[in-house]
Prior knowledge:
The protein is mainly alpha-helical. The strands form five sheets. Strands 5-7-8 form a three-stranded mixed sheet. A three-stranded mixed sheet has the order 6-9-10. One of its GO terms (molecular function) is chloride:proton antiporter activity.
Amino acid sequence: GHTILRQPPNRKLYLGSKCVMNALLIVELINSCLFSATGTHYTMTNGGTINSSTHLLDLLDEPIPGVGTYDDFHTIDWVREKCKDRERHRRINSKKKESAWEMTKSLYDAWSGWLVVTLTGLASGALAGLIDIAADWMTDLKEGICLSALWFNHEQCCWGSNETTFEERDKCPQWKTWAELIIGQAEGPGSYIMNYIMYIFWALSFAFLAVSLVKVFAPYACGSGIPEIKTILSGFIIRGYLGKWTLMIKTITLVLAVASGLSLGKEGPLVHVACCCGNIFSYLFPKYSTNEAKKREVLSAASAAGVSVAFGAPIGGVLFSLEEVSYYFPLKTLWRSFFAALVAAFVLRSINPFGNSRLVLFYVEYHTPWYLFELLPFILLGVFGGLWGAFFIRANIAWCRRRKSTKFGKYPVLEVIIVAAITAVIAFPNPYTRLNTSELIKELFTDCGPLESSSLCDYRNDMNASKIVDDIPDRPAGTGVYSAIWQLCLALIFKIIMTVFTFGIKVPSGLFIPSMAIGAIAGRIVGIAVEQLAYYHHDWFIFKEWCEVGADCITPGLYAMVGAAACLGGVTRMTVSLVVIVFELTGGLEYIVPLMAAVMTSKWVGDAFGREGIYEAHIRLNGYPFLDAKEEFTHTTLAADVMRPRRSDPPLAVLTQDNMTVEDIENLINETSYNGFPVIMSKESQRLVGFALRRDLTIAIESARKKQEGIVGSSRVCFAQHTPSLPAESPRPLKLRSILDMSPFTVTDHTPMEIVVDIFRKLGLRQCLVTHNGRLLGIITKKDILRHTAQTANQDPASIMFN
């Protein structure tokens, strides 16, 4: 026993600090038994003699409350969190055979993961249904009201009416426009002006109410939320971002923002809403509430549920979580994400918010196949999507940076009111911009059948065709189609400009729907152009084989769908998940190849102008510490070139194993802002012992002052296994070995930075110590790596603000 106890620990063993503590406890217990058996007393370090059982109390003390937790705007230690979870799991497994109660606790622990994702899925589906129904009703409120039932939107109001006609199916006596109610006129210039004024009034009211609620109650409820969720899933702490206030205000203001007619969507914010649900429910289960790494597994599943209800695409949601937002995605999380997405989609389908027995508003089915020659226009749409994505990212980031650096950013309410006013004034005269964006996408996706009354379907009909069939042959465009194309061109320019200024204002604002709308408009215009070309020039060699006279050859709605996918891909740089989402939206399995071609082209074109998508660009703009796994580190630098301290810097702030007092450590903490300190044997040897976090040191010293007698400023602090001999009159020493990380990650000064960056990404490290021949040289933190990466990319390294 003596031999084992006196042996210095092997520094090269990568053992968790808890595991080391357990081994020490066993050794101390053996010693205790040996000493008590021979009647020997154990000499304490303060000079007195005390029984060995009293000495054991130092090590058997309960864990210090607060140690192992994290401050706001700091990164978690993934390695420590995973070690903590394994220790908890071992403890539960070792006890489960002791009693029926312990077995029940073990089963509850095993099932708590499935339970929390079930609750998250149920809440996400219910809230998405509520948001969809409320947003539809409030969007129609801008135009009029249903007198027979105030809670009905325009479509529901006319469902039960027997007085609607086929051409004017949206007009019924029960639905009254504001002009009819206020001035009693349904037609004429007076009616138009009154409806125009009321449209602007409601749009401004909704926008003002949304931004006021966000500003007063939950500033974190603004924006899309996906950049922050990506950062949180990478291990960053943003307290309150996924809290109950944020959830409540985001749900209410999302409805108001969508109803105000601003160029934004509710799909991105629904991911934030679902993650809020996941975070809140995780606090009901100790397994997740006390472990930040485990909590992020729930948040990954929640983001899958969010996309599942946003697009009615459960598989797409799982792939979105895997491809776009998650940092750590084990197989267990894949299954739970799948289950959460399934539950959320089932709940939304039960609510049936759109009354079409579908999960989304713009579900469509096409009846004609696509032909090989159409790959050319599909790829051209991909090029357009990539160019739009590159333009949007640069323009939006430039505008957001200007907002941050000028006085304009200090008046968020005024900015929202101005953007809402410009949007409403320009949107009302054009029927395509006045429509709710989801309705617009639905109209653009829809194929022109015999029952369509839209001006986009105003083709010159063949008088001989009397029977109604699904496959209507290609026909020459009528005047309605040409006027619709002009209106769509104006709508395209309007949407492009307004989306740049809208994304990032202080209301919940998603980017999926505006991007899809821009792509759908461009796609529909290209689709009609190709259709007319094929009709008038069916003898051209590219059309000759497929487009005979009287054949249904081109489907313009398909081009709209491909364009929508290309533009969304250009902005977000998603590939696999995007194709699956759009395929699930339309139910068209045979259109996967055109979608893949367009999305891949848009990604390649976008990447030619800059590799990061809009979410990564916003993460960099906000200075969050996010190491993107997609980025390649190509510079040939060594760990010694990046580590702190540099040659011009003061020496590294370190703690010694047993030569410092409480006062020395408190002074070091007060004089520096570092998040942790390496612990060395002595200043002369510089041999590494471990790493102590600043927060843990502060909490442990405060706790010791309150709970342990005799701890004063001059008390010696000991990180070693044994306290050194002290004079009899010296105060009681403070043992802090329990808070020491005995296995900090170390690299040598000649390790290439490519390997260091890889270690940080794959293990989720906060810091890594640099040694030379076993002696401590310096430290590399996540922030240092991000600053170095920014510097090598000719960006401002000071933009990385957080730790």
